[in-house]
User: Fold this.
Amino acid sequence: MRLTIPPAMEGRKTEGELFAGSGGVLLGESRTNHEGRKAILLVRGLEDTSELENLIATMGIQVVENIMQPGKVSPGSYFGTGRLELLKETLQIKTEPFKDVSLIILHANATPRQLVTINQILGVEVWDRVRLLLALFSSHASSVEAKTQVRIAQLLADRTILREAVSIQTTGERAGYGGEGATALQTVISSLNRELTALRKRLSKHAHSTAIRREQRRKQGLKTVGLVGYTNAGKSSLFRALSGKNVLIEDKLFSTLEPTIGQMEKTPRILIADTIGFIDNIPNVALASFKSTFAEALESNILLHLIDASDSIEELQRKYMTTNNELNQRLSESEVEAPLHSVLVFTKMDECNEEQRHHLLEWANETAVEHAHFISSLSGEGIEELRRSIFSYLFGNPQNILVKNVVSNEAQKAIHTLYSNGFVSKRNDTENEVSLEIWISENELLKVLNQFPKMIEHK
Ligand SMILES: Nc1nc2c(ncn2[C@@H]2O[C@H](COP(=O)(O)OP(=O)(O)OP(=O)(O)O)[C@@H](O)[C@H]2O)c(=O)[nH]1
Ligand SMILES: [Mg+2]
Assistant:
């Protein structure tokens, strides 16, 4: 569904420009490809802009100038109106590299007031960090559900801008939009609300059916391993290494937006869930519509928290904290029980030398991490150990069991009970006996041994 300008606003260029920063919604645009656009980045204070620049590069947008201005953020306009007027002149330069700059990006999560003011002064589209992320999500979303989720988040962000504009008009802070301006805006807000209601209905239907599917899997005795971590941590690569299933792997932030479920290779009872990554500082409202996406990974029996070991310790610590905080937040919101085990997995170990490995171990000790795995999906290092640990976490340690007199009903019952209480990874049948390698908890094993004392031998 597309929103278009209501009749009262058509032809009123000022309003069109006013809302260019609202992701084009009012203009009826649903642009998802921003490749080749030129932008100017505004940074207040001395901040590390590398992550934002990475996100921008991922979208194929070229930053022609990075303007850093020391000092405090101006509450009304981020940069101060004087500086913005100067920038307006820069935007009028018709020579390279400033020719055709169509985007201003702020290195911050801006307020609606700041976005509207900058847009009014400069007359070009303005994004803050959240809008940039939403535009990126929108260009990577491929399924109907992912598109719906992103659209909801974008509409919510747009609504804050529209409300701000209504408030500016009704309080008369900015003249020049005419008396009917606020009413026209209200009409847009109403039609946006209608679209929101329809999209939310569709999404909640989808969330409901995926929740039913998860419940069915649980009833069938299937176990799930959820992969979580900061964006680009290597989740999809590990998913592929464990499941053998081909998924999109890219050196891009947020390559994965929708959950993918796959069976662990050769072990159909264990499912793996790959999903969207985390990133610093996304306001909750922007992610509210992604709830069902997170649920696939969070409602699992084990959570593997992936950490990119090729990062510096400071960077890794920052991403670890963000992921941990976000995880706890999502878990508390989703009313699901926290998974039984949460395990740290250091990825990309092939890129680490001995010294880095040593630092990682030190960090893991200091962070009081109980279980840590060191893997490389590229070289295969640690993958088999991780797979075996997953079996242990889910079912218990491996035991060798001999079931005798297999033709008897009692023995068949014993085999059935073993299969439903543990995970059989090897089976050898002879005429009269079956030997099993089974991953089972000591408790369960004891119960089965007591139930079938004559039939089962624990080797
Ligand atoms: N050297 C090396 N690179 C890896 C390894 N695992 C992943 N990568 C690279 O890291 C980048 C991100 O990998 P993905 O598996 O897409 O990461 P992700 O966590 O799924 O990323 P998003 O879905 O974007 O959040 C890709 O360029 C991968 O090739 C590894 O074990 N070693
Ligand atoms: Mg991925």
